[in-house]
Amino acid sequence: MSRFPKLGVILSFLLISFVCEAEKMDPRITYHTDVVEKKLNQAEDYLKQNKFKFAEQQLVSAQNKLDTIYKDYAGKFDVNHPLMLDFKKRIDYLKSKFTVNVTANPTPHEKNPITNTQITSDISPVIDAINLMLPKVLDAVKEARFAVMALNSIEADYSQYRNQNKLKSVLDNLQNKLTSINALLPNAEQLTHSFRSQYPTQESLEAAFPKQAYNLDVRIKSLENNIFAWKMNRDRVVIGLVSAALLSINEANISLESIDVSNKVKLSVAIGHIQMWTVNYYGYLMDAVAIVYPTVTENRPEGLIMSVENINMLADAKKFYTQLHQLELKIAQINNQNQIAIQEKVKNARFPSDVQPIGHDRSMVTQLLTQFFGVKPERLAIYAPWEETTVAKWIKGIWNIETYKYLGVWMLKRNESGKYFVYQVTVRHKKMNDGNWGPMHYWTIGSSYEILEQNIHL
User: Fold this and answer.
1) Looking at the domain 1-105, which fold is it?
2) Dist. CA 299–CA 432, nearest whole Å
C-alpha cells in the first residue's frame, strides 16, 4: 500500500496539477480519470485500515476504468501524460504493497494462516504449497474463464464478417490466457489430492488439527472449488464446440451426398457453405481443443484421471480432424470431376444450329451490340423472332399503356480474356405515340456458355 508522507502528497498533487494545466485533456476523458483517482484513493484508504478485500475491489475497479480509457479514447490523448503515468505508478505500487500486506495480514476468512509450526511435519510442505497455490489459481482461473467464453461468442461475428483473422485473435488470446492455468492445474490437482488422501473427512482433519481444522478446510475447499469451476466452464464450452463441429461435418456429408453435382449453381452454393463453416470456421476453431487440454503425462494419480466425458470428447476431436480430411478430399474430388465435365462440355460446345438466320436485321443488331459490348459479334442468329407485347403500368394515378416488340438473338463474341462465349441477348423497339417504332435498343442478356475458337464456325 502507498504510504506517502503528507508533504510528498502535496508536492505530487501540485506538480500534477501544474502539468495537467499545461496539457489539458478532453473533458470526456477527465470525467473518467476522476473516477480512477477516486478509486485509487479509496483503495489506499482501505489498505491503511487493513480492509484488504475492499482495497482489492477498488484497485481492480480503478484498473478496469483505466483500461476502458485506453480502449475507448485511443489516440485522443497522450499516453505519456503525467496523470496517466502517475496512475500506472500508483497502481503498480498498490499491487506490490497489496501482495505484501495480504500475505502478512490475511482477511477474516484467512485468519491464522497455516504455518509449519502449527501442524505436523509430514503435511506441512503440502500446506505451504497450498498457501502459495491458492492466489495463483484464483487469478489464473479468472483470466482463463473469459478467454474460453469467447469461443461461444465468436460465431455471430464470423457469420457477419467471415473474418479469419478474428478467429486467429480468439485462439491467440486463448493460448496467452490459458498458459498460467494449464501450468498450475496439474500441481494444484496433485496438492488437493495429496491433502484429501491423508485427511479424507472433516473428522480426520479435526482429529489431527483441532485448532486449525476450519482454516485448513476453508483453504483447501477454496482451491478445490476454483479448480472444479474452471474445469466445469472449460468442459461445457469445449464439449459444445466439438459437438457442433461433428454435427457440421455430418450435415456437410449429407449435403454433398444429396446434391445434384450437375447443377453448378446449387453445387457451388453447397460447397461454399461447407468451406465457410465446416472447413474454415470449425476446422480452425477446433485448434482450441489442444490449447485448452494440453498433453498430460501418463501414470497420473488415481484421483486425477480424466473423466470419461473428457476422454470421449478428446476422441471426438480426433474423429473430427479425420472426417474433415475425408470431407476435403471428397470436395476436391467433386471439384475435379466438375472441372473435367466443364472442360468436356466446352470441348463439345457449338454455335446453335436449329435457329433462324438474322436476315435483314443483321446490320442494325450488329451495330447496336458492338456499341453496347465494345466488340463486334463473330456470329448472330435468332432464337426468338419479333414478338409484340403490350404492358399496362399504373404510374402516379394514371394507367400508362406501352407496346414493345422483342427479338431474341444468339450472339457469339470474344471476351477480354481471349475466350469465346455464346450469349442469349434480347433487343427491342418501343412503339411511339405516332404509331411508328422507335430506335432499336439493348434490353437484357440471358444464359451463356463457352465455345472453343476452332469450333465457332462448326
Assistant:
1) Methane Monooxygenase Hydroxylase; Chain G, domain 1 (1.20.58)
2) 93
Give the residue among 316, 429, 435, 445 at the shortest CA–CA distance from 383: 445
Residue 1 contacts residue 103 (beta carbons within 8 Å): no
Ordered mean pLDDT values, 10 residues apiece, the chain (458 residues): 42 42 69 88 83 76 85 84 86 71 42 38 67 92 91 84 86 93 89 86 81 82 91 92 96 91 85 94 94 69 72 93 96 89 92 89 94 94 94 90 95 94 96 92 93 91
Strands (E) located in 245-317: none
How far apart CA 63 and CA 82 sit, in angstroms, is 17
Instruction: Round to whole Å and give the CA distance between 303 and 301.
Output: 5
Domain ranges in the chain are 1-105, 115-345, 359-455
The count of other CB atoms within 10 Å of the CB of residue 92 is 10
pTM as predicted: 0.59
Query: d(Cα 212, Cα 71) in Å, to the nearest integer?
Result: 46
Place of cell 399496362: 392
Strands (E), 75-123: none
Q: Give the pairing of strands 379-395 and 420-430.
A: unpaired
**End-to-end C-alpha distance for the chain, whole angstroms:** 93
d(CA 237, CA 328): 26
DSSP state for residue 405 in the 8-state scheme: E
What's the rounded Cα separation, in Å, for the pair 347 and 326? 31
Cell numbers of 199, please?
A: 485427511
Long-range contacts, 154-157 (Cβ 8 Å, 24+): 154/285, 155/281
Contacts with 60 (C-beta within 8 Å, 6 or more apart), sequence order = none
Distances 96 to 8, 56, 145 between C-alpha atoms, Å:
20, 12, 25
Name the residue among 183, 180, 198, 231 with its Cα closest to residue 127.
198
Handedness of CA 157, 163, 169, 174 (dihedral sign): positive
Q: Are 259 and 204 in contact (CB under 8 A)?
A: no
Residue type, 312: N
Beta bridge partners of 389: 404
Task: Indicate if the alpha-carbon torsion angle 418, 419, 420, 424 is positive or negative.
Answer: negative
